[in-house]
Model the fold of this input.
Amino acid sequence: VSPTSTPYSVPPYPATPLYIQKAKDVIDKMSAGGGTNIHGALKTAVMAAAASLVNTTTNTTKPKPEPIVIFLTDGDPTIGITDHNKIIRMVKELNAKHSAIFSLAFGDGADLSFLRRLSLANNGFARNIYEASDAALQLQNFYREVASPLLANVTFSYLPGQVVRSSLTSQNFHSLFLGSQLVVAGRLHKTTIVAGNVTGLAVNGSTTYHVQSEAEPIDDLSASLYGMKSSEEESEDVSGTDAKDKKLKRKKKTRGTLERLWAYLTIRQLLERRQVLETEDVKKRVVELALRYNFVTPMTSLVVVKPNQSEEIDQDSLKPQSLLNRLYPNSHMVHNTHPSPTRVKYEGTSSVMEEPTMNQLYTMERLQNLTLEDLRWQDGLVDWENSIVTLPLGVNGTNQQYRLGLDQEDEALGDCVSPRGETAQCRHLPHCVLPDILRSVTSYIRYYCPLPSGFAGICCPVVNLTATDRPQTTTGDTADSTTEPVYTTEPVYTTEPVYTTEPVYTT
Done:
């Protein structure tokens, strides 16, 4: 088909090796004309999906299949309709069958912001595929997300009088995919039982699931959001023995986890809505919630204030240590801020150590014998009983469960590139726990790589140094030798300035 054709006769084909090869043959016969006609390609795809849907469901009582369009581009529109807003509007009007459009921005040339708006307006999402040696793995991971739809037109409904309707986050979802989850959050009325229905379209037709649970007062969702006085508001306490010395002490209750989850989901859905429809009311609501719950958004900012104070460093404490102790001190996070220590000069006989190479550093990291129990973020995310880890890698950043592979062999299952740019191999997570991933789940996601059968993988650097090798040390007389302390700056995900004060001595 071409952008000018009318593909009403294009039927769907089963994904058998024969038809896959035929599709590849058709692609091989295509030639690039030098232009990018995004509107024409999407028009053809949406029309083909709609025509195939009609042809498939004619003279049959089976439910209609879920139409999906996967759109991949590496650039901006250059021919045909080139205005982004016009393309989004025309594609949405043409997509009467509500086919989900999933966009893939390949490389740095594509406009990810435009593709995200396009997909959000058509019940999909956008992903960025980076130009790297693991681009094929990135595509496989994306396909795994959308290849197994379980339910379509999913709706959450609750019995009257149980929930505050105006507080609910989105209750309607286009699709539920295998391995993903759907979350609805809101405020409850004073009730002991929460009951409702989850309806959707499955492969055998319409399906309804009845849910019921006891309501437990885990968190007090702030009533101040609805113009009511709440315990979340600041209160004043008077203390002191003398009336003249009375001091006002302000207290502020920490907001609960469920309340912050509600605020996070509300802000995210408002931001998605704003990308499709620019309205001032949405922006005002996002700013209000972000400031109230301390979330950083495109409409708010994070201000880091460094205390204007200093503390003198005892130079006697800056003594050489063994390399492993200096690379990995006992304390990985310092909560108090300190200025950078001044240069320290050592004279006479000194111990000179060769600077380790990157592979040597990785080897020493592996020699630490780190395990999954060393992960600081395991609480709430690692299910030891079922050997499952929960990661925010699902659709639109939702949580998705992966198998830990505790009983799997330590073997390389594919090539990848580590965040440091080193050649690496995709292995099961328990067999390659690196110090870089200990601090937070975000640090692990930088090393994450997909494995078959839903296992959690890690892009493990290739080690060329055996366990018996060590950096060599030499000693000798040096006159007026100066050794500078070099300070490691491992990223710390926090809102206050954090400095590590363990020096590493190099020559």
The two ends are 65 Å apart (CA to CA).
